[in-house]
Write a structure and sequence with these properties.
Blueprint lengths: L1 E6 L7 H14 L4 E6 L1 H4 L6 H17 L7 E5 L5 H10 L4 H5 L2 H8 L6 H16 L4 E3 L5 H18 L8 E3 L29 H9 L18 H6 L5 H13 L4 H28 L1 H30 L8
Parallel strand pairs: 1-2, 2-3, 4-5
Helix pairs in contact: 3-12, 4-7, 4-13, 7-8, 9-12
The protein binds adenosine-5'-diphosphate (ADP) and tryptophan.
Length: 326
């Protein structure tokens, strides 16, 4: 059984990425064959600076490793090292209706904001379907916001199977943790690299503290009781403390004489504790780029080998014949 997932290199990894997705990647690699990649083709629809894209891609590879992805157990690779995925997206576009893509949130959201989406963004769910189907993935661990993309992938796979061969594509199952809803950012909306509201796992300590201290709270004065149920600090603290510690924080909120600043400092300490070892490993990996590059080269080669075998079968199914595809 194979498990596959990817993250776009649009910025630094944050705690929402970890609890929504990457924590699962690390756990699942002990049970299934893991394929984990950096979705660099996907990030092109926001037209990043080439230098930034390159840096962010390498950073995420190192972040994956620091957070516990083990190259002995998982295949770690760059999406663009396997150009067959783009070919597959094109092939799948012929069994996909415009309506299916027009219903995608990513496309509708941009339109709602009055922006004119580029074709890359419109095509996004197709490329994601190709990512998943090219590697015969059984399971796809993602955060809740990706649920619709997985449904689109399943629709496309079923349609292809209906047209060409009932048994051809594995219909992938999403793995979405019910216990983890969308993790709020420092401003209360979904934490996202694109919204500038993140708490970054690997930010230097000073910057990390600043991000935590920037969490938006109301202006209840220090001595007055506070409502712990609607506070972003408490919502985030739950990921870094056990039930007793969370209950204690809630009691302090209700009693008063406990300020948001105090709660933020407790959260800051919790984050450092939970990610302490990963943060140290990350510093070491950054000094050892040759090793990181080697892991990436080997992973990309292995992924490409798997992909080439599959795309040959797909083309043959569709009637694209040529000597090399016998
Ligand atoms: P971002 O929105 O920060 O650019 P990505 O789209 O690259 O994040 O998401 C990478 C993975 O992390 C996806 O599986 C996504 O569902 C998950 N994820 C991103 N933000 C959150 C969040 N705030 N809460 C839970 N999961 C998240
Ligand atoms: N769309 C995902 C995101 O925004 C990233 C992604 C691209 C992905 N291809 C994938 C996730 C394939 C899982 C499987 O987070």
């Amino acid at each position: 059984m194979r498990v596959l997932s990817g993250v776009k290199p649009t910025g630094n990894l944050h705690i929402g990425n970890y609890f929504g997705a990457i924590q699962q990647f690390v756990e699942l690699q002990h049970k299934y064959e893991g394929y984990y990649f950096v979705a660099d083709y996907h990030s092109l629809n926001s037209n990043p600076e080439p230098q930034n894209l390159k840096k962010n891609s390498m950073d995420i590879i190192m972040d994956y490793m620091a957070l516990g992805l083990d190259p002995e157990k998982s295949t770690i690779f760059l999406q663009s090292s396997v150009p067959e995925v783009v070919e597959l997206a094109f092939l799948l576009s012929n069994v996909t209706s415009m309506g299916l893509l027009m219903r995608a949130h990513s496309y509708k959201d941009q339109q709602a904001k009055g922006l004119v989406p580029n074709v890359g963004l419109f095509y996004y769910p197709l490329l994601m379907a190709a990512d998943i189907l090219l590697y015969d993935s059984n399971y796809v661990p993602v955060g809740k916001d990706q649920k619709q993309h997985l449904e689109i992938t399943r629709d496309i796979a079923l349609r292809f199977n209906q047209m060409y061969d009932d048994e051809f594509f594995i219909i992938p199952e999403p793995m979405i943790l019910d216990t983890v809803s969308v993790i709020p950012g420092t401003d209360g909306q979904k934490m996202s690299k694109s919204y500038g509201n993140t708490i970054e796992i690997f930010a230097p300590e000073k910057q990390l503290k600043k991000q935590v201290m920037n969490i938006v709270t109301d202006s209840t004065p220090l001595e007055e009781p506070k409502d712990p149920e609607n506070c972003n600090v408490v919502k985030l603290f739950k990921f870094f403390a056990d039930e007793a510690a969370v209950a204690e924080m809630k009691t302090k909120y209700r009693e008063g004489n406990y300020g948001y600043g105090h709660a933020k400092l407790e959260l800051f300490e919790g984050i450092k504790k939970v990610f302490g070892e990963a943060r140290e490993r990350r510093v070491e990996l950054a000094k050892n780029t040759e090793y990181v590059q080697k892991v990436l080269n080997e992973g990309s080669e292995k992924a490409r080998y798997t992909a080439i075998k599959k795309i040959r079968k797909i083309k043959k199914k569709m009637g694209l014949v040529g000597n090399i595809y016998k």
